[in-house]
Amino acid sequence: MTRYLIIIVLSLLSLNGVAAVQPKGQYIQPNNLFPKVLFTTSLGNFTVELDRMKAPITVDNFLSYVDAKRYENTLFHRLEHDFVLQGGGFTTEMESVEEFPAIVNESGNGLKNDQYTIAMARQYSPHSGTSQFFFNLADNDSLNPGRNWGYTVFGYITEGEDVFEKLEGIETDISPELGWPSFPNKKIIIIKVEILAE
């Protein structure tokens, strides 16, 4: 009997652990098709309007990370001038952000990788997006879907575009920790991302 009680308790603890890390974006402002978030960064603040109408899965995924505060004190770890600024993958201590399961690619939603839009980063596999995202620093037609899967755009900057002008003065090099190129020599920190009231 004791053995069975231990198994039940362990099972409940396991279930509670799983429930605690489940994405919850679909429950955040569920009737708001265009929720807004405020990025507070070491370069300044800017606001992004998300498009749940065109990219519901991607927006809910992003809001899940925001709600879980997993973007707090993280880095923009990739800067390619006139191309993209990428973040959401590493903390300021160069530890990986805890990820939710990968999501379906919604790049065929009609939204384009134009300047000042936000899009999902991913691996070569089209349906491998998790926590990482990027901002388009130019109109990047090469990232849009064609014969192959593209990169899902799910919102755009509505206020604070001037923050991105400060990127021009930041040089990049190979990251000593990651071994990746295009790593900013000056840390660009995402202090926090907040969901704004409707």
Describe it:
With 198 residues, this protein is α+β, with helices and mostly antiparallel strands. Helix content is 16%, strand content 27%. The protein has helices at residues 2-20, 56-67; strands spanning 36-41, 44-50, 74-80, 84-91, 117-120, 133-136, 153-159, 172-173, 183-184, 189-195. A hairpin with a 3-residue loop joins strand 3 and strand 4 (84-91). The longest helix is centred in the N-terminal third of the chain and has 19 residues, at 2-20. Residues 1-19 have low confidence and may be disordered. GO terms for molecular function: peptidyl-prolyl cis-trans isomerase activity. Pfam families: Pro_isomerase. Belongs to the cyclophilin-type PPIase family. Residues 33-195 form the PPIase cyclophilin-type domain.
> Whole-Å distance between the termini?
52 Å
Query: Mind summarizing the main beta sheet?
Result: 8 strands, antiparallel, barrel
Order of the strands making up the biggest sheet: 1-2-7-5-6-4-3-10
Radius of gyration (CA) equals 18 Å
Number of helices: 2
User: What structural category characterises the helix and strand content?
Assistant: alpha+beta
Describe the oligomeric state of these chains in a short phrase.
single chain
Instruction: Indicate the proportion of strand residues.
Output: 25-35%
Low-confidence stretches: 1-19
Q: Based on Cα principal axes, name the global outline.
A: globular
Count of strand segments: 10
User: Fraction of residues in helices?
Assistant: 10-25%
Average of per-residue pLDDT values: 91
